Each structure stands twice: as structure tokens, then as C-alpha cells.
Amino acid sequence: MTSILFRNATVLPMTAEADAPKYFTGWVGIVGNRIERVEAGDAGADEFLAAHPDARLFDCRGKLVMPGLVNTHCHAAMTLQRGYADDIALMEWLNDYIWPFEGRQTADDVALGMTLGIVEMLLGGVTSFVDMYYHEDRCVEVAERMGIRAMLGCNYFDSNIDEVFPQIERAEAAAAGSLRVQIAVAPHSAYTVSPENLLRGRKLADRLGLRMMTHVAETRDEVRIIGERFGCTPVEHLDRLGLLDERLIAAHCVHLTDDDLRTLVERRVVVSHNPQSNMKISSGVAPVERLRKAGACVTVATDGTCSNNDLDMWEELRTASFLQKSYTGDPCALPAYEALRMATVNGARAFGLEGLLGVLRPGALADVVVVDLRKPHLQPVHDLVGNLVYCGKASDVETVVVDGRVVVEKRQIEGIDLERLYADVAAAVERIKRA
Amino acid sequence: MTSILFRNATVLPMTAEADAPKYFTGWVGIVGNRIERVEAGDAGADEFLAAHPDARLFDCRGKLVMPGLVNTHCHAAMTLQRGYADDIALMEWLNDYIWPFEGRQTADDVALGMTLGIVEMLLGGVTSFVDMYYHEDRCVEVAERMGIRAMLGCNYFDSNIDEVFPQIERAEAAAAGSLRVQIAVAPHSAYTVSPENLLRGRKLADRLGLRMMTHVAETRDEVRIIGERFGCTPVEHLDRLGLLDERLIAAHCVHLTDDDLRTLVERRVVVSHNPQSNMKISSGVAPVERLRKAGACVTVATDGTCSNNDLDMWEELRTASFLQKSYTGDPCALPAYEALRMATVNGARAFGLEGLLGVLRPGALADVVVVDLRKPHLQPVHDLVGNLVYCGKASDVETVVVDGRVVVEKRQIEGIDLERLYADVAAAVERIKRA
Questions:
Q1: Minimal Cα–Cα distance from B305 to chain A, Å?
Q2: Which of A67, B100, B152, B251 has its CA 20 to 30 A from that of B108?
Q3: Cβ–Cβ of B322/A429 closer than 8 Å?
Q4: Closest C-alpha to A194, from A241, A150, A232
């Protein structure tokens, strides 16, 4: 088994109790795909090296070692449409740009778009992501090859359910035995998928032992449509169908009643907050601070690159905090450490890996990033957590380990020729637009 | 005279008329501190090289050449307090942290903090900034040495006006003859400076031929205080005193009446919008879209690093656009190109350099940045401007030229030892906190 030692590091394990110090100088030892030891000081490091003489050694002076970030909602392959339709109204956006483009792209195009998305995420310290898109069966191989941890949600509407369900079975077969890739059942939303087809999704998920995800209460229009159709809110509708539990990722949750909020807490639903997307496409502001204080599991995510337009979790974290401070009128709302917990500790629950992901502690999965703290925007250090959340950049990430494997080193991804990737993406995009 | 040729570049001159193409493949030639030629194609480049055989040549394949960004409101030396007091209420922030810290720092500390701030800004493509702080007389030398373009606003309250005014005279003497550094008179605000002392500032500014800046309508509290004291809004109060004209930079302008808005337009005041600061300290949301559509000169700025916490104009641009889309409920609000105009073309007006700064055209000042477009988050290119505004990062900036001088090359600032700077900053901060 391979092993890795991060030594002389500032360590931010994301395991600190309320008022305890959040970080310390120390070392982290990895064996196989697990974290074996996380300790202050340097004493145990020699012992670790003696036990694992072949360990790869990273000297982390001036560097931070922390859990990788977890992006709980995105459409990674939509990188192909990044900037394709900015600053226009929603229906024009969908009808004239997004849907025609998507109608013309092949499974290989989707795999290519996802490759670009994963490159961007890995270089920005995202070690796990939850995807929701088409052709996810084709993408299992991409996620496996790129070394990232992924939950691939197979998106379906009423119109294509019979096409997607076999894909889910194929994807599940392709991912069987994978340590890093899991498949999920992803009805688009309660306003685009009938109750019957939502329940068919639930049944399939139960049969295959899969998690689910869907868009919930993203826009006022959605709330109105569900109200007219079913006489209740989207959350109530999904609850009546029995879809709300800790195995569901509910993306957005912008427009909630007090009852909706309580329901999401009681059912232990994983809420995925997408602040930049909500801002860019004018969806509204999610009541994250109220959800959080009520005990909901709130995570943070980028959404797709058509409504963001990047996959940068550092900016997303920061925007989550700033937006709550602005929206609530309280500068103490969503403090830095809590925002970071959303992107790590809470994110783990989206994968059903609470305590095993998003934390550095013995036994946890070895998803670790090294951040270079010797940057002008991260100096001086009054409060490292504040610096990270309010100033940290994707470009500060230097090394990324997923499942015990070094996938980014000195900001390079092994085995990826970026110029070739950009050329392939450009060619695919031209072909799709011309088609 | 030195000369520079940027060849084979994507050129974004920020001079395009409404529906004309915004960028093209071409070249930019600089002679001395001015841009001499900006042209599509490559034909004229050889001619330029023949006329300037010693020109430094930058091959800009895969790179963008654009005007440097203009940050119209910051307190650069507050880098020393970055992260010193996050997530706490305003009065506690000021009374227990900021003011005691500031009371203990020396002019040399301020110069050190400004050095760090300028390093961060230059590396992020900011070629001009408007500062507002103490000991600006000490900082003239810093801005001169670092090669950035600066307007240094000497901040005063009623309590220290007699201390600051001589500093203004000294600063003005120190900056006399500088091509890049100008001094400004900066009363803190209408609620902390009496009408008499505001007018004394105006008189001094007139005598020395200086511009002015102040905080305007940043918080509800300020509006309430001015209302109680003078029976009018902050904008009305400043207007009655005759302070509103195109020589004033009004920072924030969050809480405005319709009349205030019209007054700011009519008086041609330069409005400095600070979206991340307004969000982080819960000041409210400035009506940027209404101001812009009414014809106001709206610029964009980072504010200080205690309320941001970085000096990253790319994130600020993006947040400005996202926040207006969220606040107005209109996804078409503050489109990408208009946001970029705020940070370039409009920013020039803060310096009284309209048409000479923030644009690439013959005769304009040679403040130019080169952005590396071969980044995953900037691919593919459906719309370069959208990519820049919604995805561009400070770390994408590769080369920075200010006033015809190359100050950043391959992301390095000539003559700056960053490790030494960080150590000096850390030592200063420890001393100040212990004092």
C-alpha cells in the first residue's frame, strides 16, 4: 500500500469542537486510501516514516493541510456551454441556447465537458462532487480515470425517463466495485417530473441502493406551478411522496415556508446551497442561516457553469457567507468556520460518508488538499480560517490527494495535456453549434 | 524612451461602441508611458518593431491584452488587519479591534501594510487605486517605488483635522511632479466631519488643485444621523455644502432616495461601488443598476481588507454583477461588459483621466495587463467578456505594465522579496497587537 506523509504543516482537520483551536502545526500520515494519523507537533512523524519507509514525503512549511472540498451540486459537463448565454432571460436562455445545444451533443461530448469540469475542480481543491446530467453512464470512466470522487446523478424528465432508467442500470454496473464513483437517481424537479415518475425513481433507487437528488424550490415560478398543480409547496409535495430523507440531496431550497424548513430538518435532507447561481440567474436568496440554525444539513455547491460560470468552491464559500450577511442584515451571520464546515463536514453527508469525508482524522478517507499560505492575499495571519474563507483562491491549492492517490502536484494533473483538452473542447463546441 | 510590443494577442481595448465586436486578434505598441498603436491583425507590428528596434516583445498567443483595472476605493494599509476581526458586530469591530490597532501603528507600519496591499493589487492586474487612510504622506514613496498609479486620499475626522492638513501639504509636496501619484483630500464622512471641516477640506482641495473623496450613505445609521442632525439625506447635505461635483469620489452610496440619485447624476459625482464590503458588513445593496441607467458614473472597488478581505477586483466585478441580478430580480441586470467598464473606463474618471486611462487606444496612458486565457476555467470561449467577468481570476494575470513600465512579469514583481515582506508584516502586526 502506498503511503504519504505531510510534515511541518499547518493542519486544519475540521474536527474542532465549538471553542477549541481550529488548527495546529503538525503532520498527517496516509496509508492506502485512509488517513492513519493526524497529530500536532512532529514527534510521531519519524515513527510513521519508520513504519512506512516508502512514504511520499511532502514538506509543508508555510502550507496548510485540510480536507478536500465537496461540491454537492453541479452539471460538470456544462463547461461546454460556459459563457454561451449570459445576461439573458431564463426562457430565452433555455429555449434558444441551452436545450438546442444539449440536444445536439453526444455522450462523448458530455464526457469531454466533464473532463474539463473535473480538471477545473481538482485544480481548485474539490476532491468530491455531486453531478446531475445526461449520459452519466458514459462518465463513470471519466471520473474513475481522473481520480476524483464523484456521485453521478442520472437526470431525467417525464419525457425521457424510459431512456434514462436503462442508463442508470448501466452506470450502476459500470461503477460497481468502485471506491470513488457512486451513481444516483436524479429526477429533474417536482414541476418537470410527475408524481408517478418521481416514485418510479424512488423505487429504482431503493432497488439498486442508490441515493437521489433533485432541484427543490429554486424559483418562484416553480413554487407557483406546484401550488397550482398540487395545492402545496414543493417540499410538501416531495414529502407526501415519501422522497424526503437523508438519502436525498435537495438543490437550491430558495423559497421555503417555515413548515418547509422544519420538514427539511426533520427528514434530515441534505440541502445544497448554490449562492452564485441563485444570484446570477436571479432565483432569490436561500434562507441558509435559518436552515442552519434550525439544524438542517446545509452544504455548498457551484451549480453548472452556465449559471456561475466557474466551478470554484472558494468563491462559492465566500459568497455563501457574504450573501447571508447581506440578506439577514447581520454581519455575524454564517461565520467563516461554519461556511467551511458546509463545504467539508456537511458535504460528506451528501455521499453518506459522514465522519469519513470532509475531515482529517484517523480512519477517514484520504481526500486531502495542500494550500500554499505564502500568498500576499493570505498574509498576515490573524485568523487562518477567516483568511481561507474570505480570501482563499482556487489557485492557492498546490497538491490534491483523493482516496490516497496524488492527483494534483505543483498545480499539475498527471496525464492531462491541457492544450490538447482545450483544442478538443473548442472543436466539439464548434461542431455542436454548427450542427 | 522604452517601448513594448504585445503581439499575437487577443485585444480587449474597452473602446467598443454598443453593438460592435468587443475584442479582436491584434497587437498593442507602447512608447514611453503612452500607448502608441492598437491594431487588429499583425501587419503594422513589423513596422512598429522597425521604428522601435529595442522594443520589449511579448508574444501573447493564447493571451489577452486589456487595460489595467482601477480600484476606486480602498484602505490598502489595512492589509495589516486582514482577518483581525471577522464575523463580529460593527461597533465591537471598531471599538475593540480596528481603532485600538490603528492607534498603535506608526507611519512605517502603514507604509508596510500599503506595500503588501500594492503587491496583492499589482499581481491581480490592478494598475490604479484610490486610497483613503492615514499617513499618506509617508506612502507617496511606497506607491512611487512599487510602480503603481495611485490617488492617495488623506483621511481626516473633526478630531484630527489639524494633524492631517499639514500631512496633505507634505504629501502634495512629495508627489509634486509625479506622473503616477496624486494626493486627494478625504474627509471621512458627513457624520464624522462637521460642515465647517468639510468646507475647510474643500477649500484646501481648491487651493492645491486636488480631488476629494468621502464615504456617502454607506449605512442606515449614517442616513439616520444626518437626518437627525441636518434634516436631510447625506447626499443633500453634501450638495448644500457644494461638495458634489466630478472631482468627488463618493464611496458606497448604498442608501439613496430618488432625488439623491438624480443629484449624483447631475453633479457628475464618481460613485464607488463596493459590493463585497457592503455584503460582508451588512450595509445593504447599492442601487447600481438604477444609478447606471440614470447615467451616473459608477465605478467598482474593494474597500479595505477588513471588510472584504482581499483586494481582488475580479471577484469584485463579478460580485457587482451577481448582486445586481439578485437584488433587482433581473438576470439581465449589470451585464458582463458593463461591469468591466465600471472597473476600467469609468474608473478613469475617478482620476480625472477619462479616455486616458482604462482604455487601450493611441495616446492613452500605458497601463496594460496580460491575462493568460489558457486556463480550464476560461475554456471554451463562447464569449470572452463573459468568461473574464464571470470566471476571471486575479491569478490569471501574468504581466502588468503601469505607465509604460513592466512591473509584473510571469507573476513576479521585480525587486520584491515576498518572504521578507511577509516576515516584516508578521513582526509589525505582533508588535502592534502587544503594544
A1: 9
A2: B251
A3: no
A4: A241
DSSP A183-215: EEEEE-BTTTS-HHHHHHHHHHHHHHT-EEEEE
At residue A89 the predicted structure's pLDDT band, cuts being 50, 70 and 90, is: confident
Q: Which of residues 362-421 of A touch B (CB under 8 A)?
A: 374, 376-377, 379-384, 386-387, 390-391, 393-395, 418-419, 421
Total number of domains in chain B: 2
Measure CB to CB from residue B380 to each of A322, A391, A429 and give the nearest one. Answer: A429
- Give the C-alpha separation, A130 to A133, whole Å: 10
User: Which residue of A lies nearest to B390 if distances are taken between CA atoms?
Assistant: A309
| A319: chain B residues, CB-CB within 8 Å | 319, 322
- Mutation choice for A interface testing from B74, B281, B282, B340 by most A CBs within 10 A: B282
**In chain B, which residues have their Cβ closer than 8 Å to the Cβ of A312?**
377, 391, 393
CA A165 from chain centre, in angstroms, equals 24
Residue B383 has pLDDT above 90, yes or no: yes
Domain assignment present for residue B435? The answer is no
In the predicted model, is pLDDT for residue A90 greater than 80? no
Cis, peptide link before residue A309, omega less than 30° from 0: yes
List, for residues A318-363, the tens digit of each pLDDT value: 999 999 999 999 999 999 999 999 999 999 999 999 999 999 999 9
Select the residue from B119, B377, B413 to test the A interface by mutation, using most A Cβ atoms within 10 A.
B377
pLDDT value, residue B94: 82
pLDDT digits (tens, 9 = 90+) for B50-89: 999 999 999 999 999 999 999 999 999 999 999 998 998 8
- Same domain for A260 and A362? no
Q: Taking Cα atoms as reference points, which of B282, B286, B346, B280 lies closest to residue B315?
A: B280
With CA atoms as reference, the chain B residue closest to A387 would be B83
Dihedral over Cα of B311, B313, B318, B322: its sign: positive
Q: Please state at what angle helix B107-123 crosses helix B418-434, rounded to 10 degrees.
A: 140
Residue that terminates a domain, selected from A335, A350, A365? A350
On the 0-12 / 13-18 / 19+ scale of CB atoms within 10 A, B18 is: exposed
ipTM for this prediction = 0.97
Q: Are residues A270 and A364 in the same domain?
A: no
CB contact under 8 Å between A336 and B87, yes or no, is yes
Range of the domain at A404: 3-67+356-413
Q: Are residues B63 and B73 in the same domain?
A: no
What percentage of chain A has pLDDT greater than the value 90?
94
Q: What's the CATH code of the domain at A229?
A: 3.20.20.140
Mark yes or no for CB contact A422/B374 under 8 Å.
yes
Nearest CA in chain B to A220: B329
pLDDT at B377: 98
CA distance A357 to A347: 8
> Mean of the pLDDT values across residues A46-71?
97
Contact between chains at B79 and A335 (C-beta distance less than 8 A)? no
Q: What is the pLDDT of residues B160-217, one digit of tens each?
A: 999 999 999 999 999 998 989 999 999 999 999 999 999 999 999 999 999 999 999 9
The pLDDT, as a whole number, for residue B92 is 84
- How do B3-11 and B63-67 pair as beta strands? parallel
- Give which of A61, A90, A322 to mutate to test B binding, by max B Cβ within 10 Å: A322
B429/A329 Cβ within 8 A: no
Looking at the structure, tell me whether residues A95 and A159 fall in a common domain.
Answer: yes
Residues A367-390, mean pLDDT to the nearest whole number: 98
Question: End-to-end distance of chain B based on CA atoms, in angstroms?
Answer: 49
- A392 occurs within a structural domain: yes
